[in-house]
Each structure stands twice: as C-alpha cells, then as structure tokens.
Amino acid sequence: MGKEIVNALVPDQLRKNSWYQDYLHLMGQLLAWCYLSENGLLNKEIRFNGDIYQTADHSLIAEILSVGLSGVSAFKSDPVWNSAWSHYQHYLQAIPAPELERLATSLATARRHGLIRYHELPDILYGKYLQVRPALPSEVRDLVANLLPKDLQHPVYLSGDGAFGFMPLLTGKNIQLFSEHPQPETMHSLIALLSSQVALREGDPVLNPAFLQHGRLRQFAYGVGVLLREHSYKVNEVRDLFGRFSSGIRQKEILFVTHMLHQCSGSMVLVIPGRFLLKNTAESRNFRKKLIKDGRLSGVIRLPSGLLPGRAQPLFVLVFGGDTSNTICFINSDNDYFKSVAVKKRGEAKYRLNNSDVIVEEIRDPRNTRVSYQVNCTDLLSAGDTHFPLDPGHYLGANRSVVFRSTGAVSVLDDGFEIIRAQALRGAEHEQDIRVFMEVTVNDINDAGLVEAPKRIVQIGPDRLKRAKGQTLQAGDILLAIKGQAGKLALVPELCGNNWVAGQSFVILRQKPGNGLHSPVVLFRFLKSETGRKLIDSIRTDNNVPFIHSQDLKQLPVPCWSDLEQEQACQAHEEVLKLYARMKFFREKAELIERAILKEA
Fold this sequence. Notes:
By secondary structure, the protein is an alpha/beta fold. It is built from 23 helices and 22 strands. The strands form 6 sheets. It has a 9-stranded mixed beta sheet, sandwiched between helices. Strand 1, helix 10 and strand 2 form a beta-alpha-beta unit. Helix 2 packs across helix 6, helix 2 packs antiparallel against helix 8 and helix 2 packs parallel to helix 11. It is elongated, with a radius of gyration of 31 Å. The N and C termini lie far apart (77 Å).
C-alpha cells in the first residue's frame, strides 16, 4: 500500500500551496526516518516513536519533530546523509501547523498498523517530486529509457543534471543504479536511503568522479547522462587524474561526453545541448572527428526546440553502443510531427515531444528510414568535409528531406572566394580632394536579399582613399554581416554604383577566377538555403553581440555542384527576384489605395 499511503499523505489539493515542495521534502524525511528505525539502522533513542504524536499537545508537534530530526541528522556525517536531513527546520516553519499535525499523526497511524510498503516508496515519492521539479519532460525521459537495451542485466551509471530522474523508470528492472552529483539534492539523498538499489555519492563527473575501483574509474555496462547547461572551464581548472581528456579542452560538453565514454563500456544514452555538434571551432571539429572514428556513436537525435522552459535552443540525444558500428543514424525531430503545443502555463515549456516510439524504432532498426538518414562513417571521414558534421539538421530538413549530400565533393569557402573584411570609414569634411562614397548598411538590403541604393554618404579624404577603394563593391559581390545582425546576407546587383562601399559590419565574398562556379549567385542561393543558414549559424558566437570570426568563415564547407545544379540555382534565383518584384508592386499599390482612403476621409 505504498502508493495509497503516499497519496493519502499528499492529497492533490495541496499542490496549489507555495509550501508544497517543503511538504514533500519533510514527508520524505519522515518516511526515511521510519524506514531506518524499522530496520534497526538508527540508535534506539533516536528512532521514530509514533506514540508521541498520538498523545502530544498538537502545538508541540513541530518542536517534537525538530528534536527528533536533529538527532537523526547528527547520527552520521557524510555528504549524502547531511543532504538528506538538511533544511528540516525550514520545512517545519513553512508548513502550516494543522497540516504538520495531520502529516505526523497519519504517518504514525500508518506505521503502527503496518500499512507502509517501504520498497514501493522510492518510485512513488520521487514520482510526486518530479511532478513539480522535472529536470526533463517525462516524454524525453521515456524516450531515453526506451533507447537503452530492453534486457538490462548490469548496473547503470546515472550522471549529470537530472540523470537521477531516470531512477523510477529503471528501479523496476532489479538492477543497481549508481549516481553522482556535486551537491546531492535532499530528495535524491532520501531516495538513496530508502532504496537498496540506489547508490548516490557526492562527485563531479568531469572534475571529481565518485565511482572508482582500484584507483581507476569503475566500468559500468550502461550509462545515462544529462547535461542541460553549456559551460566553459577556466584554463587549468580541469585536473584529470585518469587519462581521459586531451590538453586544452575547456568545453564542458566535450569533457562530459568523453568522461561518459571512459566510465561506460556498453550502451549509453546522453542528453546534451549539442554546442559542439553545431559549432565549427577547431575544438568542436576535432571532437566530432574523434567520435566518428571511435565507432561507438550509433545515433544522433535533434529534439524539438522549446521542450524546456526558458530554453529556445534544441537538445540533442546521442546514442552509443558497446560495440563499434560504421553507420550513424540521424533523426531531426524538430518539426511538427514530433511536437505538440503544450498547455501553456507561466514558466512551463512551449512544446511537448510526440511520437517518440517512431524515433526508437528507427534507431533500433536501420532498415526503417521514414524519419531518419543513415550515414556511413568511412564515407563521412573520406568525403573531404573537414567539419565532420554530426547535426541531424545538416542532413535532414524539417520535413525530413535530405538537404546535404554526405558523400558529395566539398571544398571550403576560402578556396573559391576572396574574403574581404570591411573597415570603418571616417568622413573628412574640411579636406581638399574629397571623394564621395555611398556606404551600404543592413538597412539597405531589400526583401529579396539585394542591395538597393545605399543612403549613407561618406566623404573620404586622400589619407583614407586606399581603404575605401579596397572595400568598393562590384556587381556579384556577396555581403555577409559578421557582427550585430551576424548572418544577414545580400547580393550586389548588376546595376551598382562605382562608389558603393561595404559598411564595417560586413565581409565581402568575391568570386575568385576559375573557381568552378558559373556565377556567385550559386553560392548566394546556397547560403540563403536551409543548409547554408545552419552552417552560418554554426560559426556564429553566442555572445551578447553575435559575431562571426573570419577564420571560421574561411573554413565554411561549400559543396561542389554540377553544371546542371548551378544552372537550376541561377534560374531559381531569377524566379525568386520576379516574385519579390511582384510582391513589392502589390504592396506599393495597397499603400496607394490606403493613402487615398485616408485622404478622402
């Protein structure tokens, strides 16, 4: 009757109260106190005595509980024990006296009549806790649990933010669970005291791993890791005693994944932000290459954006096997088929995950390719793409269509285009021999992506004339904003002034002779496409002012298109321009009609 007892002690109507979480924690402490007393794990003088609460003056209940919990708290001293009994004074003060009295007397009555089934408590109690403190949505937890092998027969290692939340899904399999946390939460510590299946320790998977054996990392057959926040460590902050990490690595995601690969020798599922999957820094590229060569990565799933409150960027699920594989399954679930609008409440997530069973089927059976795309690792390593893409969005569009050929010939942007960094042009008003230039800003880019007649006039003296000429625009130049509105694109049209210059927020991409392209329009259309946007986003920094570094831009991968594909791109470009011209015509016509109506009124 574990479930019935907990439901009776925690009626649903209590959830609306601000002290509800305090109530759950205190109830967990009282249940753990009863369990330890029942099993003789506490000294007799500090064991739970339910008779006191049946006969004591109701106004003294809080004081009696405080004395008892104080004794239990002082019984031992280790991080998990201290965490389990922390904050009890706050809970006793936060919960109204009548509710405190009902909790204590009801618990004493249930214990006296033998109604508490302690082996059922961890799942039920933590289930209640997850309803108000979910680190991950229940649908994501179910997905991850189902991606593990069905017949778990060995201990499972749970590490990182929210990994302990998988405990209720795994305790029914009669296997031991090992979890670590730098500062164990009170409820997690109580669950560890109530369950013989759960071993919780204080530790940090990157800085100070907790589970060792004979001076080395203990090996686990299975693992679940969750990392929800990006972080870069300071120089020399990570001191690795176990030979896990390459020198100079500071991204927490890379270090966390590397640790999990060392701690778990078998199947493993990780939930991470995926910054290293999206960024094209040398650190990220090298790690992606290492994962591909290692051969244990068997699946990458891009989850829908908006599954977590306050987080716009998507999470990724990485699936690893114990054996090596030469194929990686990519699934892009960031589309309407896999997400539904949640019942929006303040502070809650925007979307919920749908149809996760389809994801599981495709990961487990490579023959299913309704929503997935299989990539051969050997082909990926030998394709010439030095970025080693592992983002499902690189291969699959939102509607599952393949948007990038994994085995096609690839070059880098610097091979075919000159990259000219525009600089600030300060005007000179009172000098002689002044030249007038028209500086292009992001406001001069129309809806079709073409530069229209720039409006900003800059007067340049002889001392800065060389700089101005160096960034004078030519027909067919592509402008890419690299700061502020980083990623905004524009094409300089055929009819362009000989005194147009790029503003300092741009770089100019100018086609080199003999680069194999019929027209710079081909590159422009590619960069405007879904794949091009994702590639540009991957090299844009996440600082307060977004920025694109020139070195990253030079290494941007560019496919090598056939003559037919280039011709089709140029024809499509002309069609797009015609459509935008018609849209402009109708918009201006509508504005004329509106002005006429207002004039008549």
